[in-house]
Amino acid sequence: MGERTRPRIGLGVSLRQTPAGHYAHASNTDHVISVHAGPPVRSSCVKHRSVRKRGDISLMPAGTSDTWFDDEASASLDLRVPTSLLRSVAEEMGLDPQRAGIEPRYEFRDAQIEHIAWALEAESRAGFPNGLLYTDSLGTALAVHLLGRYPAPTPDRSGLTPVQLRRVKEYVEEHLDENLSLLRLSRIAGVSTSHFKTLFKRSVGIPVHEYVVQRRVERARVLLQQGELPATQIALDVGFSHQSHMARWMRRVLGVTPTSVARSRAV
C-alpha cells in the first residue's frame, strides 16, 4: 500500500523484412532501436557507405526520420520504446523526465542492447509465454541502459562544434548544385533536424537556407566574372532552378544583376 508503481507501457517488437532499394524511416512518437538480423547487406546513405552485419545497431530517437538504400533485401529487429516509458524510467533514475531522450547513432555494436533485443525477439516468436512482467523488466533494463549510455545531448547554447560546422560547410560547398535538405545537412552534423536549425543559426548568425543561398550567389559571382560559362549554365551549376531565379537572389544579396557582374570582370 502506498508504493508508487510505474504503469506498464508496451514495448513494441517486430521483425522487419525489406526488399532491396530505398527505405524511409518516418518520424514518429516512439524511439526506435533497429538491430540488423540477417546476412550482411551493403547499405548507403548521404555520403556514407557500409556493410551492415548481424547485430549492428541503429538508434533513431522519437521525432527523427531517415532514408537509406540497401543493395540487397534485409531483415531487422525493431524495438519501439515509447517516449512515456523513457520518461517514466528517467524519473525513477532521478533525471528530468521532460529532457529524457537518446542520441541518434548508426551501425554500432552494444552487447547489452543486442542481448535484450534477441531475448525480446525470442519471447515474441514464442507468443510472449512469460507475460508482461518479463517484457516490462526487459523494457526497463533497455531504457536504463539507453539513458545511461546514449542520452540525448544537452542543447549547446554556443551552437555547432567547430568540427560539425566544418563538415556542414564543406558538404554545402561540394553539393551546391543539388537540392540540399535540412534532413541531409542535419545528418552530416549528427544532430536532429530541429536542433540543427537552431544550432546552425547560433553558429553562423543566419538561417541555414539563407546561408546556402548566399553561397550560391557567391559561387555564381565568381563564375560570372570568369566569363567562361553562359549565365543559364551557371545558374544550374550553383543550384538555382533557372537564370531568373539566380538574378532575383543576386539582386537581393549583392544589389546587382548577373549582367553587371559579368561586365565587371577584370580584363
From TrEMBL:
- InterPro entries, per the entry: AraC_XylS_family_regulators, Homeodomain-like_sf, HTH_AraC
Keyword terms of this UniProt record: DNA-binding, Transcription, Transcription regulation
**Is this entry keyworded Transcription?**
yes
SUPFAM superfamilies associated with the record: Homeodomain-like
Q: Does the keyword Zinc apply?
A: no
Indicate the segments forming the HTH araC/xylS-type domain, all copies: 166-264
What name goes with this protein?
Answer: AraC family transcriptional regulator
Q: Which organism is it from?
A: Pendulispora brunnea
